[in-house]
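If it is no trouble, can you show me the amino acids of a protein and the tokens describing how it folds?
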Amino acid sequence: MLVVLIPLIISLSIVAFWAWMLNDMLHNDDIPSTEPVGFRWPPVAKNHWIVFFIIFSLFTAGYYYFTIYREQR
């Protein structure tokens, strides 16, 4: 039972963190919806952040946390 419970807790924690950062990004009015210059790194526009959230999932959620979310609070 414990063998199944530990990976389940870890997986749920990762998904919860990802959903938390995605929710914050979608409701953050300080991030512009589109970027007039085009694509650049690090992403500035919500559209680009969403693409990276889908492609890189947890890595991007962590990057968003350390670059934007943590500095706002």
